What does this fold into?
Amino acid sequence: MSLCKIEYVCGMKDYVNIFIKNEKRPLVTHITMKVVENMLPKDSFMRVHRSYIVSIKKVISIQNKVLYLKDEEIPIGETYKNVILEFFKV
It folds into this structure.
């Protein structure tokens, strides 16, 4: 699997769902968000919520504490808000 196909990652306790472009179902794996965050390149992926990591290139817009990807709305966590707004110059 190529990293450029990952749209976002959603955490669920000790599991993560990895949402991949053109796949109907996510890849589910037993790993923590912290481990995934450390594995993904920082110049391509950003933690935006305690339960979400997104591909920076897939972000279409940001409005009212929500990141919009093509077909998804991802909440922005309060802890990550300032870094995200600064990065995207919102």
